[in-house]
Amino acid sequence: MPTIDLVEQRSLHFFYRVTQHDVSRSFEPHFWGRLAWQASRAYLTVQYALEAVSAMYEAYLRMEHVTHQSQGVLDTPTSRSALVAYSKAVKLISKDMSAGTIPLEAVLICCLLFVWLEFLRNDFATGMKHLRSGLSILLEAPGILTRRSLPLTAVDGSIPHIFTRLQIQATLHGCPSSDFNSAPMPCPSEAILSPRPHGFLTLAEARYFLDSKLLYIFQFIREKEAFEASRGIGATGYPEWSYLVARRDTHVAELMRWRVAFRSSSLFRTSNTVNSVGVLLLRLNFKVALMALTGLFFYSEMQYDEYNAEFQQLLTLVERILQSGPSKGNCLVLSLDTGIIPSLFFIILKCRERTIRRKAMEALKSAPEREGMWHRDSIIAATSWKVSVEEDLAARVFGVYQGPPPRDARIYRERVRDANSDGKSALVRFDGGPTGSSVTEWELNGLLSRLGDMM
Asked: Which domain of life is it from (predicted)?
């Protein structure tokens, strides 16, 4: 066991304190609170990695990121100290792995911490490399993930599930520097999930099964988008189109089966559990996935106007989650996991009912500053831009000042093509009007990260 000086003790204590409000604590309270901490006490490389993440948190607490270039890697005095610890961890883990002196579980914990650190540094390309490395380790050694493994090589069951959720992030976010969408990887959670139960005993179990479905749903959505892009306007005329529709229906049926098991669970026997953040998050994730599948084959953005009641339900869940979370300004939440930001992003992008849309934009301001790859201020910039463009077109060109914007005033698909070298703006390429009718490019300020294909 490595010795720990006072500075290192402070760092470990700080890490434990700042992760108390992480989304994962609603499902896996033992991982960041116990498992990662214990591994840092046993293995020096994990200790260095944890110290690096803790130092990056301190850089944010000191507001060192506020004056930093939005697109660049965070480079401040505190973050440079994090890089020193990070460099030590990387060198030591290579040495330990070559010598066979570090167990697989500690390697995977280090990998997760490396991903987290790079997300905090805004270096998604390197973060994705660490994520892909960890996934490859998990998928190449599925036998290690079973409970029949030897104690020295056993891996805690929460680890593959955390990797699964990071896969979902990478797929949904669509970072251009990542090839997760062009070369999707299998779900690591499948190696340890038992057959689907009739009801779930814990929130964690319910989330594991839902996450395994969400990963394949979002991979399928990206596959459909890629097919449509490659075939152009005539994509619906190809035989593969009806096959894609059938696969969509299969995914919907799988979601519905999960909902039946969820509603049949013992989780709903007390009002406290029903209204817990964990249950609300699962309901939100389920409804967003179902809405995304529902709209996947819409021929017009106007069809989303028929689902304002569903968008309101999504917004109500988000508001309840915000009310149940820590008080705004009471703590800094820089979670590796995702909570409400992607859902709010989806609502604002697709719902044109002004009251719902405006309330969702207000809720976004109260969201955590960071949720994994999702940066609140960057999403605020992107959604504010889209709403402004659509409403301006509706008023200036079509004379519509109230109600939803008409068809030709709507943005149909956004893609962040590139980020300028000055780190202050990104180039957004989007379709205006009916799909394929026009393509426009717009320079957008304030994007902290390249969003790739926005959904």
From this structure: Eukaryota
Domain of residue 91: give its range. Answer: 1-159
User: What pLDDT is attached to residue 149?
Assistant: 38
pLDDT at position 271 is 60
302-326 pLDDT tens trace: 999 999 999 999 999 999 999 986 6
pLDDT at 157: 85
Is 202 inside a domain boundary?
A: no
Please count the structural domains in the chain.
Answer: 1
Q: Is the pLDDT of residue 58 over 70?
A: yes
Residue 122 lies in a domain: yes
